[in-house]
Amino acid sequence: MTLTITDLACRRGQITVLRGVSLSVAAGEALVLRGPNGAGKTTLLRTLAGLTPPIAGTVDPDICAYAAHADGLKGQLTVAENLTFWASIFGTADIAPAVAAFDLAPLLHRRAADLSAGQKRRTSLARLPLTGRKVWLLDEPTVSLDAANVALFGRAVAAHLGTGGSAILATHIDLGLPDVRTLDILQFAARHAAPVTDDPFAEALE
Amino acid sequence: MIALLARDLRLAIRAGGGFGLGLAFFLILATLVPLGVGPDATLLRPIGPGILWLGALLACLLSLDRIFALDLEDGSLDLLATAPIPLEGVATIKALTHWITTGLPLTVAAPALSLLLFLPTSALPWLVVSLLIGTPALSWLGTFGAALTVGLKRGSLLLSLLVLPLYIPTLVFGAEVVRRGGDGLSVATPLALLAAITLGCVAVLPFATAAALRINLR
């Protein structure tokens, strides 16, 4: 499964941030997005995930699983309840492999509100294998993870790549992945950040 | 979608979920009116249907801003939008959850409260029927308003201003059903209009809600 994007233009709010983005990720491959803060890494990932409609070009959100800055956990629910919910939304029967991969077994019956930031992060990332989707879009996935858990997460991503999946990451940390390419997204920066001609009604009807 | 309904209902009954908030407000309002106006049957009887419907309306309004705001805050709204269930389905489930946690308890509690307002017993069945048929429109309209204002700071005030005018037809026909039922008149016309409003809202508004969410998530 290869994700190929050609000539994509992305927006954030009223501003065109990226233009002419072309990239491709093959099965088993990871692509790391590089660029300073504000370069548009998050914008690109949100566009690929289908949250922000692109100005030009097409994306295929149905093969992508998106992990954002926010953890997306419900504090009043336990770790097991949170994961079971996402598993049933995505039609996955069993949360056990994801629990094992992210070493969550001791935390399963703790309320998510009582977890540490790193434990929340791990629980949030355990959602990714439950989606059953091929392309993982990861936005700073290692924030608040310690070195041991970064390695744990690196192994989970490597396992995903090993089963023919792929990943696009915005990260500054080396995850120790076998097959990594980097892409400097500054080359796609829209030089004169022009306001987008806005027609919310047309967009809503799309 | 069933999973989403189960999760939201479970969240509502857990600590801080807000289940029963609207119901408690409704109870207090219906108790305060006789205290304020005086326990005079000739005074309370004609305004009873209006008070109960107004109470139901305001009780519904209380919990509207939580419908999407909590999911937006913790990031799960983004994740739901990228999930394989359509956003229209999410909107429907959210409205249904709101109705089950607000409209339904109000309907059940209303007959007991109507005694405080000296409502004639002949009006009680119509009170329950009108609330049962009318309150879904309140939840579906409110969910649409919540989607429009999600992500706005202090959006809940704007939400009330947006949604309350839309509640007027339901209020008018709902109270009219109870009044006519109490007087022994035919309730067919207001009841049919009440049902029409609810059915229209349930059919159309999920699409508008999903469109509003898409724009606000961008």
Automatic annotation (TrEMBL), chain A:
GO BP annotations, alphabetical order: cytochrome complex assembly
InterPro entries under this entry? AAA+_ATPase, ABC_transporter-like_ATP-bd, ABC_transptr_haem_export_CcmA, P-loop_NTPase
Q: Which residues form a coiled coil?
A: none
**Is Nucleotide-binding among the key words of this record?**
yes
Q: What is its EC number?
A: 3.6.3.41
Alphabetized, the UniProt keywords read: ATP-binding, Cytochrome c-type biogenesis, Hydrolase, Membrane, Nucleotide-binding, Translocase, Transport
Q: What is this protein called?
A: Cytochrome c biogenesis ATP-binding export protein CcmA
Automatic annotation (TrEMBL), chain B:
- Provide one Gene Ontology biological process annotation: cytochrome complex assembly
Keyword Cell inner membrane recorded: yes
Q: Name one Pfam family in it.
A: CcmB
Q: Where in the cell is it found?
A: Cell inner membrane
Q: Which UniProt keywords apply?
A: Cell inner membrane, Cell membrane, Cytochrome c-type biogenesis, Membrane, Transmembrane, Transmembrane helix, Transport
Where are the annotated coiled coils located?
none
Q: Name one GO cellular component term.
A: plasma membrane
Entry membrane topology: Multi-pass membrane protein
InterPro entries reported in the protein's UniProt record: Cyt_c_biogenesis_CcmB, Cyt_c_CcmB_bac
Q: Where are the membrane-spanning stretches?
A: 12-37, 43-64, 99-120, 126-150, 157-175, 187-213
- GO terms for MF: heme transmembrane transporter activity
Q: What is its main location?
A: membrane
Give the family this protein belongs to, as stated in its UniProt record: Belongs to the CcmB/CycW/HelB family.
Function of the molecule: Required for the export of heme to the periplasm for the biogenesis of c-type cytochromes.
* Stated name of the protein: Heme exporter protein B
Q: Top-down, what is the taxonomic lineage of the species of origin?
A: Bacteria, Pseudomonadati, Pseudomonadota, Alphaproteobacteria, Rhodobacterales
- Gene that this sequence comes from: ccmB
